[in-house]
Write a structure and sequence with these properties.
68% helix; mainly alpha; single chain; two-stranded antiparallel sheet; 2 strands; flat; 4 helices
Length: 110
């Protein structure tokens, strides 16, 4: 007999999805939490009178959170981009020090 572990995401007594990985189940649960928050936000806007459309839009936005954050320019740069920025800053500092060193050498020579 095989033992199978299943992680079930449940909302309001209704089984939403079953996963074999706790990580996937937690990610899906967080996505549903975000959809709930977006549903409230959309309801406050009174732009959508149909609750089904409001729920569908909230779920869509929650599922596409990363793309939405990129569109809103709120997503942080990747680690590679941050490293490239630091190298550029280091090069600028090095260039400034080289110029200062040149100025000091010129002053000593005069």
């Amino acid at each position: 007999m095989a033992v199978i572990t299943k992680y079930i995401v449940e909302r309001n007594g209704v089984e939403k999805m079953t996963f074999s990985s706790k990580t996937e189940a937690d990610a899906y649960d967080r996505m549903l939490d975000l959809a709930d928050e977006l549903f409230v936000l959309l309801g406050q806007s009174q732009l959508l009178s149909d609750e089904r459309q409001q729920d569908d839009l909230a779920l869509y936005l929650a599922k596409n959170k990363d793309n939405l954050l990129v569109c809103l320019n709120q997503k942080t740069k990747t680690a590679k981009d941050k490293t490239a920025g630091k190298e550029t800053q280091a090069e600028k500092t090095k260039d400034k020090l080289a110029v200062v060193g040149t100025d000091e050498n010129a002053a000593q020579a005069a």
